[in-house]
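User: Sequence recovery, please. Input:
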């Protein structure tokens, strides 16, 4: 269903009013409108879709045609969440393009010349089915993609895959692992795996070529055998990876519940993405149970097989058949045989040789020397380190001051060290607390005693979030806290706000990681394994994990509830980003009188409320009281700030075009016809920002407006032209014959000539301001509106620029010989610095 009203309005604004920014987001289009190609002055086009919007309202653009290169001035192009499968190489002719968003489309390739465009600063290609570009390279951004293409001139191949064996404890995972690698393995009692065991299974080239003729050397399967005990579940997320093959093992007599299977299948789905899953029922020589395999497959489409196996000699054919199936699936994974830069493959082999030689880790200096031997400088080596880190070849946290000199080659060195803490009886009996003396005792072995500082830093690193420091000598692992709720004081009042995260499936450890990340805000050591109390300024929060209900609840009390909730949501959503397509709904409580006075309010899905807003639905109904409530009040109670790093700023048309060209970091601009439209957009879309001309607003009014609407920016001067034609801005252009004193005096002269005319009209203009029409907010300072006269009476330019328009009132003939363009005027350091100041980017 097309949004015909919006499509028509945009076309009119472009064709009749010369608008340079095009917002056709969520309009139901299946191609880029042809008329846009006839307007080369357009600087921004947004044809993207919000993920929460109704499907019939989503754009479904399939092709980015060659005609796009006719829009010579284009700076930003956004086609996220469309169906684009082809991008014309002609796009590379757009010399001004600095932002390109093609996230979540159907691209299998992207031309190298597009990535190498001179002015391109940011490109988003995530969530596309590329055949050659590795997702780890895409995730690192533009420079990573450029470097990959540059290094790919000479190619090589890695025939290697990761097999991850998971399941509950004592089901035979370790025996299966050993039997896969050793054909002569005889069944024996194995100790339960603690943490992770990693082994190599090498399949000779002559054997693997019978399955996949394209493989030209030995095929290596890295077998990761994961411990099944409960304590290890919450740490698996650091090692379960995409582009792997998963083996979920159960035992024929073990009474696993549906919950156990759904836990493992869900965690694989979240962390392994579309990786294939094989299911195996071990010990089929014994009486077997039946499993609802069809049900599992209907819910998890990446399940590729289900086998009943046994390692006993009489049943060996069941295992051999399973083993052949595994080899076939592993050797035909989509990434097997994809080309990589040969020098990367060579460096990786050198790293593997060191690991095979017994090195658990090396220094950064030694890693750089390996790369140097392959004629790679430090910059290239560190870039490659990022790729190897994301791929799991090494662990190297370059940005962590305490870890940047440590390059870990052997993952088992880390996992064994970490689990020594998690499994230590004294640490467990102390409910997760451990001291420096405990550390010296636990890590006293020769493999750890010289790297204690680094291991502890790894546990505290924001990727792992395993522990935090309580004092100079004491640390805490939240995953080992007592499970029972402790005694605490929480005084619920009528002003207490609630919020919830509801999950289709909730991974373990989210609250434990939140406790680590927000440990500096913990109130009076009030925490247990499934709850924590936090305090920010004068506002308190009670956060509880209801694991068996698949939800996290948040209660807040105090003056800064909105700001504190933003910080909590931001932190939890950072944790969510470690998972692939985690299905979670943010829930907003009803604010009708019945719900606010009761203990069990009705909750609305936050994204549904946003859809109401996008469809101009202003009221919804409570399912408990059946009373109507305001959609705007429900959403504005939750967020005045966007969760994403990038701020979407709506502003008046010309201002949007000017600011887009500046490429200000994390800011994108969309036009509205006037300041009233800007204010309405900001008030009805709390996650957007607004920028309006000052016009005839008073300092006191601006202060009140900005306090009420923290997502609202206001120019310090009357309009954007006051910045463009400011004497200091003109002076920076170094124009021949320009005299700043003469120019300033001319501005003052014209201002005084126009002053009486301005004074006679400003009150009428102020009556139209949309901000003043919300009478309950009392934003107008009518008793002091004659301060406008004070502004104009002054000959101090910084004062009268608050009420004098360089756009409408100033005759610019004094500058006509210079033929200045908006691009020149907005490209100065002075102008950019002033804009950065307005948006707090200094």
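Assistant: Recovered sequence (842 residues):
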């Amino acid at each position: 269903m097309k949004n015909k009203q919006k499509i028509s309005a945009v076309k009119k604004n472009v064709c009749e009013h010369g608008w340079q920014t095009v917002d056709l987001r969520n309009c139901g289009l299946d191609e880029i409108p042809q008329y846009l190609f006839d307007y080369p002055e357009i600087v921004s086009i947004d044809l993207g879709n919000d993920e929460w919007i109704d499907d019939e309202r989503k754009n479904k653009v399939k092709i980015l045609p060659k005609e796009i290169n006719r829009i010579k001035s284009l700076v930003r192009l956004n086609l996220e969440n469309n169906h684009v499968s082809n991008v014309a190489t002609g796009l590379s002719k757009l010399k001004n393009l600095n932002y390109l968003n093609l996230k979540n489309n159907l691209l299998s390739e992207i031309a190298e010349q597009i990535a190498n465009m001179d002015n391109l600063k940011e490109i988003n290609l995530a969530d596309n089915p590329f055949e050659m570009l590795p997702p780890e390279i895409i995730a690192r951004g533009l420079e990573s993609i450029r470097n990959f293409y540059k290094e790919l001139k000479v190619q090589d191949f890695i025939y290697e895959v990761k097999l991850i064996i998971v399941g509950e404890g004592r089901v035979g995972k370790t025996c299966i692992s050993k039997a896969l690698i050793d054909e002569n393995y005889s069944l024996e009692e194995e100790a339960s795996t603690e943490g992770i065991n990693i082994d190599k299974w090498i399949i000779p080239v002559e054997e693997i070529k019978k399955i996949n003729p394209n493989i030209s050397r030995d095929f290596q399967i890295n077998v990761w055998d994961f411990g099944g005990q409960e304590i290890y579940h919450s740490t698996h997320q650091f090692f379960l990876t995409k582009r792997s093959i998963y083996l979920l093992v159960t035992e024929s007599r073990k009474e696993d519940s549906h919950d156990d299977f759904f836990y493992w299948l869900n965690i694989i789905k979240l962390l392994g993405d579309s990786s294939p899953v094989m299911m195996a029922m071990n010990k089929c020589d014994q009486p077997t149970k039946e499993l609802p395999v069809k049900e599992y497959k209907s819910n998890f489409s990446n399940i590729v097989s289900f086998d009943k196996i046994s390692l006993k000699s009489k049943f060996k054919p069941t295992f051999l058949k399973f083993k052949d199936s595994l080899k076939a699936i592993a050797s035909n994974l989509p990434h097997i045989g994809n080309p990589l830069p040969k020098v990367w493959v060579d460096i990786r082999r050198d790293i593997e040789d060191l690991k095979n030689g017994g090195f658990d880790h090396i220094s950064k200096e030694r890693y750089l020397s390996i790369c140097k031997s392959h004629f790679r400088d430090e910059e290239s080596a560190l870039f490659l380190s990022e790729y190897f880190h994301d791929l799991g070849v090494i662990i190297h946290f370059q940005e962590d001051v305490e870890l940047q000199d440590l390059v870990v080659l052997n993952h088992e060195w880390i996992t064994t060290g970490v689990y020594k803490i998690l499994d230590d009886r004294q640490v467990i009996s102390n409910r997760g607390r451990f001291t420096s003396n405990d550390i010296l005792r636990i890590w006293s072995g020769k493999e750890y005693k010289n790297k204690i500082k680094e291991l502890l830093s790894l546990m505290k690193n924001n990727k792992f979030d395993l522990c935090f420091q309580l004092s100079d000598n004491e640390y805490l692992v939240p995953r080992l806290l007592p499970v029972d709720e402790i005694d605490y004081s929480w005084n619920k009042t009528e002003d207490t706000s609630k919020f919830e995260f509801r999950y289709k499936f909730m991974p373990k450890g989210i609250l434990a990681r939140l406790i680590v990340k927000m440990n500096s805000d913990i109130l009076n050591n009030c925490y247990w394994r499934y709850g924590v109390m936090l305090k920010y300024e004068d506002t308190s929060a009670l956060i509880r994990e209801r694991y068996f209900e698949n939800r996290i609840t948040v209660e807040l009390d105090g003056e800064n509830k909105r700001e504190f909730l933003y910080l909590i949501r931001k932190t939890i959503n950072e944790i969510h980003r470690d998972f692939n397509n985690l299905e979670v709904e943010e829930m907003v409580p009803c604010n009708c009188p019945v719900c606010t006075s009761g203990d069990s309010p009705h909750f609305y899905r936050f994204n549904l409320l946003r859809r109401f807003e996008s469809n101009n639905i202003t009221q919804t109904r409570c399912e408990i009281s059946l009373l109507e409530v305001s959609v705007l009040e429900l959403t504005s109670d939750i967020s005045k700030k966007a969760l994403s790093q990038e701020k979407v700023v709506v502003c008046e048309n010309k201002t949007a075009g000017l600011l887009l060209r500046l490429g200000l970091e994390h800011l994108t601009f969309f036009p509205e016809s006037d300041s009233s439209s800007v204010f309405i957009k900001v008030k009805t879309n709390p996650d957007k920002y607004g920028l309006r001309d000052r016009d005839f607003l008073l300092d006191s009014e601006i202060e009140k407006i900005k306090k009420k609407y923290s997502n609202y920016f206001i120019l310090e001067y009357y309009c954007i032209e006051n910045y463009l034609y400011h004497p200091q801005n003109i002076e920076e252009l170094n124009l021949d014959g320009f005299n700043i004193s003469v120019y300033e005096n001319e501005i003052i002269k014209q201002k005084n000539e126009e002053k009486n005319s301005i004074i006679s009209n400003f009150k009428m203009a102020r009556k139209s301001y949309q901000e003043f029409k919300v009478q309950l907010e009392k934003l107008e300072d009518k008793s002091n509106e004659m301060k406008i006269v004070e502004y104009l009476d002054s000959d101090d330019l910084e004062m009268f620029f608050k009420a004098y328009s360089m756009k409408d009132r100033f005759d610019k003939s004094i500058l006509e010989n210079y033929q200045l363009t908006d691009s020149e005027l907005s490209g100065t350091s002075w102008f950019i610095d002033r804009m950065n100041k307005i948006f707090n980017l200094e």
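Residues 740-766 form the longest helix (27 residues).
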